Amino acid sequence: MTANDVKIDATAAPGMAGKHIMVATTESGDLHRDTVALNSATSRKRFAKAILRKVFTGMRESEWPADAWDKLDEQLLAYARVPPGPPETNTLLATPTEDLRAIELAKMPDEVRGEAEALLSDPKLLERVSADIRALGVVGEKENGLILYLVGTSAQLPRPLAAITRGSSSSGKSFVTEQVATLFPPEVVLHATSLTTNSLYYFKPGTLCHRWVVAGERSRVEDDTTAEATRALREMIESGQLSKALPIKEADQLVTKVINQPGPIAYSETTTLNNVFPEDANRCLMLDTDEGQDQTQRILEATAAAAAGLNLPDVGHFRAVHHAVQRMLPRTDVVIPFARGIAAHYPTDRLEVRRDFRHLLQLVKACALLHFRQRERTHDGKVVATFDDYAIAERLAREPLCAVVSGMSESARAYLHRLREEFGDRQFDTTEAKRLGGASERSLYGHLLALNNAGAVVQTAPQRGRVAATWKLTGLEPEATESILPTLAQVVASAECQRTDEPQPQLG
What's the DSSP call for residue 247? Predict the structure, then answer.
């Protein structure tokens, strides 16, 4: 008897999420039975090892054929990739489903739809959005709240935005995302607190099409395994769809099936990590929470006011209005006639700006889409962005995008000034630097590393056992944030010069 003679079947283990009852059989009958966590390589190996001991009775493990493990693991992985069940239930077709927003909009009261129409036509639309986010209990974090709202709005674009919000525990990063997400209807926002390696492939056909996927907190483990786990997510964000060839068991044979999952998706998650896996980070806008003492005071005051029953708005009503707004947005692209004017002044000294520039353009498009009732349309229905949209996008993106280009966030820059006030020209160690307060020790250490990378701080002695590393300020002033992104005046001037050199969009 060899490993080729073993056939493995699986059934879901009742009440045991992620585990399956695996039964290995041969022509002689059952060989081995156990409960296995198919996504765990250790669990699969333990099951396979028990089988091989019975197949190769009397032989030492070192004498087993080299391919014996692979043959059994191939069968187990087939079940890990495709849950037990009829193959046709796991074959996804790359065809978008009907836009449910129009159906749900028709069910809404006339009063709510009327208020949504008025909101979409209001020149102060974004100010009202910001006020509604504050009414949900989000204190401060104005820019982050608006960016996340535009990330969700961008789900209706052919290429949506993605964002990762960084911050220490208790900094409010998850609260901001969760509250903004309540302003989006259920057919737009999809809450997925934990995404496994293959989970994106097995949603119902069309489930991910033009959805804002709001994930939970990112794993703190950043290694090759984690990078592989987020590969499908990167592919979906980058190309707007997923495609993968997988072995699927049909009858007694393994056959290859191509699984397609259509998008695109907008995406957001949170993390306590200072440094996120680069392949994921450069596909997202990186947002940082405000961990300053003033922000803490504002949160305490707002929490106390809520506990006292003060200033409690009718959140249910204006959430319904925002749901209507999102259901009214056209599912179309946006034209930016002055895009070359932005490119003419965008910094080019870092390779990462190629993707960062695209983030800025997508933010402009999200602004224009939200203001579609106040914008012109092309003959084929595309929204035409204005300089107002760039002004909004530049203001909101200034800190996250400039932090990438300059290598330093505004909070790290503020920390640099505190280090100068406290230590001046003298050396200090990591412990002393962390005692400055104003944020968590983890965040302060992250700022210290960012300052070191930017050349504003140099390490004079590394950590040795329990003896902390020592540092010294160099006197270098990192480039000011305001000088990085093109100003509105620069974009307007360049666009005027280029206007006669390129065709203009045909308006409808």
Answer: E
The three-point CA angle 342-347-349 to 5° equals 150
Based on the fold, state whether residues 154 and 205 are members of the same structural domain.
yes
Could you say which of 60, 84, 108 is where a domain stops?
84
Q: How long, in residues, is the chain? A: 508
Rounded CA separation 356/402 (Å): 9
* Type of residue found at 156: Q
Cis before 247? omega within 30: no
Residue 470, domain member (yes or no): yes
Query: In sequence order, what are the residues at sequence separation of 6 or more whose Cβ sits closer than 8 angstroms to the Cβ of residue 111?
Result: none
Residue 194 sits in the same domain as residue 299: yes
Rounded Cα distance between 478 and 146, Å, is 27
Same domain flag for 108 and 251: yes
**Beta strands 189-192; 211-217: pairing state:** parallel
What is the total count of domains within the chain? 3
Q: Which domain holds residue 27?
A: 3-84
Q: What is the DSSP letter of 180?
A: H
Tens of pLDDT, residues 46-82: 888 888 888 888 888 878 887 777 777 777 776 654 4
Query: Are 30 and 9 contacting, i.e. CB atoms less than 8 angstroms apart?
Result: no
Q: Cα angle at 420 between 417 and 422, to 5 degrees?
A: 110
Interior angle at CA 494, CA 493 and CA 498, nearest 5: 120
CATH assignment of the domain containing 465: 1.10.10.10
Structural domain includes residue 358: no
120 and 144 assigned to the same domain: yes
CB 152 within 8 A of CB 259: no
pLDDT digits (tens, 9 = 90+) for 132-161: 999 888 888 889 999 999 999 999 999 999
Nearest to 472 by CA among 492, 489, 457: 457
